[in-house]
Write a structure and sequence with these properties.
The complex is a heterodimer of chains A (162) and B (310). Chain A is of the alpha/beta class and 162 residues long. Helices cover 15% and strands 36% of the residues of chain A. Chain A has 2 helices and 9 strands, in the order βββαβαβββββ. In chain A, the strands form 2 sheets. In chain A, strands 1-2-3-4-5 form a 5-stranded mixed sheet, with helices on one face. A 4-stranded antiparallel sheet of chain A has the order 7-6-9-8, with no helix packed on it. Chain B has 310 residues and is of the alpha/beta class. Chain B has 9 helices and 11 strands. Chain B has an 11-stranded mixed sheet, sandwiched between helices. In chain B, β4, α4 and β5 form a beta-alpha-beta unit. In chain B, α4 runs antiparallel to α8 (229-240) and α7 (158-178) runs antiparallel to α9 (255-262). The chains are: A alpha/beta (162), B alpha/beta (310). Chains A and B meet through α1 and α2 of A and α7 and α9 of B.
C-alpha cells in the first residue's frame, strides 16, 4: 500500500505533515502542496521504503514546493531516505533543509538493533561507530557506512533531469 | 579464457575458479601479451583483467573477445569505461575484506562453456528452498514484494528485508513495464507507470527467490530479451555519480542503481528477443556498514536457441 500523509497547521503559513509507509508511483503528495504555506515541516520517520518511481514522485513534489516559494524542512529521515539524499541530486530541494536523521546500530553479539535520532540543526555531527548495547553491554556497530552517511550535508549534487 | 594480473595470488585464484568450471584458463601478467594471445586465437573468448591494467587493455583490439575488470574498490569510473567500450561485459569486485568471489567466477566460466544462463537458484548451496512466482498485474507485484520482505525478515532481519523488497520492486517494475513490447518492438507499458498493467500469461515475468544462510538470491526472468548492456552500465554509472534521473524511458532511470546499491553481485543473462534473466545476490554475512565494498555486475548475451526461419 502506498504512503499515507497526515497534515496539521500550527500557525498561519506553517504546515506540519507526517508521511508513513511506502513511497511509490501511487503516492499522492497533493496534501503537501497547499497554497500560501511559507514553511512545510515533514516528519519522515515512518517511511519504510521508497522505490525508483517513488523517488520521481518525491522530486516532482519537491520541485512544486520550491516553485510555490515554500521552505521545506525534513525531520527524522530514516536510512532509506538518507540513502536517497546521498544518491539523488536535489532530493531535499535547493532550499530544503534536513533537520534530523535516524541512524541505526546493531549488536552482533545479541542481535539487538536500535535507531536513534541525530539532530542536524547545528550542522554535520560525528556519528559514533560503536556504542554499548542496552541489552547485553557489548559494542553495537553503526549499520551504515559511517564516513559517508551524512555526505549529503557536505557534497551537494547538481539537480538535473535528462 | 585469459586471466591478466601481476598480482600472482589473485591471478591464481581466478584461474582456479575458472578451471573448476571446465574452461582452460591461460594466465598472463601483462595486458599486451594477453592481447597477443587473443589475437592469435581462432575463437573469441573472455579475458579477466586486473583493474591496474584495465585502462590500457580496453583500448586495444581484442578480436571480438570480451573483457571483465577485477577491482578492489568501488569506483564508478569502471562503469564509465564499460559504457564507452562495447567489449566490457563486467566488473568483478574482489576485496581483501570480502570472501573471494569464487561463486561468481565459477558461474562466469560455466556460462561461457554452456552458452546459456544457469538455473536461477544455481548460486545457492544444495538444500535451500526455492520459491517461484509468475507475476501478472500490480496487485500480484505488491503481494510478491511483501512475500519477499517477510521471507528475508525471517532469514536475516529487518534491514536486509527492506533491501530485498527494494530490489524485488525494481526488478519487477523493469520486467512488467520496460520489457514488454509488441510485435514491432514498440514498448507496451513503459510510458505510463501509474496505469495498471494486466500481462497475458506468455508476457508475465517469473520471480524466484531463496537463501542458503550465506547468500540470498533474487531473480526475475521475462520473455522479451530486450535489456541492453550499455543501458545497464550507463544507469548504474549515473546513479553512482550524479544521481540524476533519466525519464526518457518512462521511468525514473534509477532502478538499476537501487539494485546495485543493495546487492553484492548482479548477473544479467540475455537471450536477445527471447529471454532476460536478472539474478541478484545479496550477501547475508557481509556487515551492512561495509556497503562501500565493490560489487560485481556482469552482463552476458547468448545466441538465439530458436530454430531459424526457412
Amino acid at each position: 500500500m502506498s504512503a499515507e500523509i497526515e497534515t496539521r497547521s500550527s500557525a498561519p503559513g506553517v504546515l506540519h505533515a507526517k508521511v508513513r509507509g511506502v513511497i511509490d508511483e501511487h503516492t499522492d503528495f497533493s496534501p503537501l502542496l497547499p497554497a500560501s504555506v511559507a514553511t512545510l515541516h515533514v516528519d519522515t520517520s515512518e517511511v519504510f521504503r521508497i522505490n525508483s518511481m517513488g523517488v520521481k514522485a518525491w522530486l516532482d513534489w519537491v520541485h512544486s514546493v520550491e516553485r510555490a516559494g515554500s521552505r521545506l524542512v525534513l525531520y527524522d529521515c530514516p536510512p532509506v531516505l538518507v540513502g536517497q539524499l546521498n544518491m539523488i541530486a536535489g532530493f531535499a530541494g535547493r532550499l530544503g533543509r534536513v533537520a534530523s536523521v535516524r541512524a541505526p546500530w546493531v549488536c552482533e553479539a545479541c542481535g539487538h538493533g536500535i535507531v536513534e535520532r541525530i539532530d542536524l540543526t547545528h550542522g554535520p555531527v560525528a556519528i559514533p561507530q560503536t556504542k554499548p548495547c542496552p541489552r547485553c553491554s557489548n559494542a553495537m556497530e553503526f549499520e551504515e557506512v559511517g564516513e559517508v552517511y551524512l555526505d549529503f550535508l557536505r557534497v551537494p549534487k547538481t539537480p538535473a533531469t535528462r | 579464457m585469459l586471466v591478466v594480473s601481476q598480482d600472482t595470488p589473485l591471478r591464481k585464484a581466478i584461474a582456479r575458479s575458472l578451471t573448476c568450471s571446465g574452461v582452460a584458463a591461460v594466465e598472463r601478467d601483462d595486458a599486451e601479451s594477453a592481447r597477443e594471445h587473443a589475437l592469435a586465437s581462432s575463437i573469441p573468448g573472455l579475458a579477466i583483467v586486473d583493474a591496474a591494467q584495465f585502462d590500457r587493455a580496453v583500448r586495444g583490439d581484442w578480436n571480438h573477445w570480451w573483457l571483465i575488470c577485477v577491482t578492489r574498490e568501488q569506483d564508478p569510473r569502471w562503469f564509465e569505461v564499460a559504457v564507452e567500450h562495447d567489449i566490457v561485459c563486467g566488473i568483478v569486485g574482489a576485496s581483501e575484506d570480502l570472501p573471494f568471489p569464487t561463486r561468481q567466477l565459477v558461474s562466469v566460466g560455466r556460462r561461457l562453456v554452456l552458452r546459456r544462463a544457469p538455473p536461477p537458484s544455481a548460486p545457492l548451496a544444495w538444500g535451500h528452498l526455492w520459491h517461484e512466482r509468475s507475476v501478472g498485474d500490480n496487485d500480484a507485484r505488491r503481494e510478491r514484494i511483501d512475500e519477499v520482505h517477510r521471507f528475508a525478515e525471517d532469514v536475516c532481519g529487518g534491514r536486509m528485508a527492506g533491501k530485498a523488497a527494494d530490489v524485488t520492486d525494481e526488478l519487477l517494475m523493469n520486467a512488467m513495464y520496460d520489457a514488454p513490447v509488441d510485435g514491432s518492438g514498440t514498448p507496451l507499458y513503459a510510458h505510463d507507470r501509474k496505469s495498471p498493467v494486466q500481462l497475458e500469461p506468455e508476457q508475465r515475468p517469473v520471480l524466484g527467490y531463496g537463501a542458503d544462510g550465506d547468500v540470498m538470491v533474487l531473480t526475475v526472468g521475462d520473455p522479451f530479451g530486450r535489456l541492453k548492456r550499455r543501458s545497464v552500465f550507463e544507469s548504474m554509472h549515473r546513479g553512482l555519480t550524479t544521481g540524476q534521473m533519466d525519464t526518457s524511458g518512462g521511468g525514473a532511470g534509477l532502478g538499476m542503481s537501487i539494485i546495485y546499491r543493495n546487492c553484492s553481485s548482479v548477473f544479467f543473462d540475455v537471450q536477445r528477443r527471447e529471454h532476460t534473466q536478472v539474478s541478484v545476490m545479496m550477501d547475508l554475512v557481509r556487515k551492512p556498514r561495509r556497503g562501500d565494498l565493490p560489487r560485481s555486475v556482469l552482463f552476458f548475451e547468448y545466441p538465439s536457441r530458436r530454430p531459424k526461419q526457412p
